[in-house]
Write a structure and sequence with these properties.
Helix content is 22%, strand content 32%. By secondary structure, it is an alpha/beta fold. It has two domains: 220 residues, Spore Coat Polysaccharide Biosynthesis Protein SpsA, Chain A (Alpha-Beta Complex), CATH 3.90.550; 87 residues, UDP N-Acetylglucosamine Acyltransferase, domain 1 (3 Solenoid), CATH 2.160.10. The strands form seven sheets. A seven-stranded mixed beta sheet has the order 5-4-1-6-11-8-12. A hairpin with a 5-residue loop joins strand 9 and strand 10. Helix 6 crosses helix 7.
């Protein structure tokens, strides 16, 4: 079985964090978003992976190659970000021989019955009810309850079921043909080539899709959702760190996830804190936050913050969203 994971987006809604850190590599509950996706797909039997990279793609490629050295993987570059269908289309030569294809967008974490998805005899798309469907691809049904229309970001939605970015395609060649048709005929929605339009073309040609509702959908494109996802996962078994070394004069309020080789002293950490590897935290209070690798915090009081890799912060009491390779000093000048 083959899977394609598009990870070429710029993650603009998480800037400045994503200026130097691709969104799929942001850690949640102790591991990057993309690792949740890869691990889930390997568990259901996916053997071959195709990654569509673009913005900061080398970082994603390096992470995947070092973390999953034995995995069968191919990387394809999307030079121009022209939409989700275009991302899959640029990898078409790697996909045409697949008997069945999984599409999983690289900024999404979902809870779903994967066994049900894989046992479904028809193609599937996963859906979730949302309060405002206008920003998503939306699924509509006919009187018999069958999917008869897919609409990308409708102005006046007729359904509140949004597609969450996970699909199982059995008619792979038909998908490739639909992508080719829309792109060669310049059929766009809002200036791009969304996958929604290609799937709609398949429906028009007689393909049936089964909707599978997901239990939870964590669309980690915004800071608040990222932190909420981090908290929810840390509350679950298997994500938090409990076998921790004795940090000097430090109180840990579980659940937290703390990486390797961290130097922590005179601090209070937690709850719901993820800290990357090689971080240094001194005389600080941190709760409900994500702290990157090699970050340095001294005399800070942080909550609901996302702090990037290689970041130094001294003397601040704020809620922050800080990118990589940043140094901030809020200390008062000495008299």
């Amino acid at each position: 079985m083959k899977a394609i994971i598009p990870v070429a987006g710029a993650g603009t809604r998480l800037r400045p964090l994503t200026y130097t850190q691709p969104k799929p590599l942001i850690p949640v509950a102790g591991k990057p978003i993309i690792s949740f996706i890869i691990d889930q797909l390997q568990e259901i039997g996916v053997k071959e992976f195709v990654f569509v990279i673009g913005y900061l793609g080398e970082k994603i490629k390096n992470y995947v190659e070092s973390t999953y050295p034995e995995m069968h993987k191919t990387f394809v570059t999307q030079e121009s970000r022209l939409g989700s269908a275009h991302a899959i289309w640029v990898a078409r030569e790697e996909l045409r021989d697949a008997e069945e294809l999984i599409i999983f967008f690289g900024d999404t974490i979902i809870d779903v019955d994967f066994d049900r998805v894989m046992s479904e005899p028809s193609s599937c798309l996963c859906v979730h009810k949302v309060d405002d469907p206008r920003g998503f691809g939306v699924v509509e049904f006919d009187e018999d309850g069958k999917i008869n229309r897919l609409v990308e970001k409708p102005r006046i939605p007729r359904s509140n079921l949004a597609m969450v970015g996970f699909y199982k395609i059995k008619e792979v060649n038909m998908l490739m043909d639909a992508l080719e048709f829309n792109i060669s005929h310049n059929i766009r929605s809002a200036g791009e080539f969304p996958l929604t339009d290609a799937l709609m073309r398949m429906i028009d040609e007689g393909v049936s899709f089964s909707p599978i509702s997901v239990d939870n959908w964590f669309n980690c494109g915004k800071k608040d959702v990222l932190l909420e996802t981090n908290a929810i996962l840390l509350d679950r078994e298997g994500y938090a760190s409990y076998d921790l070394p004795p940090y000097e004069n430090t109180i840990i309020i579980h659940p937290v996830s703390i990486g390797e080789n961290c130097k922590i002293s005179n601090s209070i950490l937690g709850p719901h804190v993820t800290i990357g590897n090689n971080a240094v935290i001194q005389q600080s209070i941190v709760k409900e936050s994500i702290i990157g690798n090699y970050a340095s915090l001294q005399e800070v009081n942080l909550q609901k913050s996302v702090i990037g890799n290689d970041t130094a912060i001294t003397g601040v009491r704020q809620s922050l969203n800080i990118g990589d390779n940043t140094e901030i000093d809020f200390s008062l000048p000495s008299e």
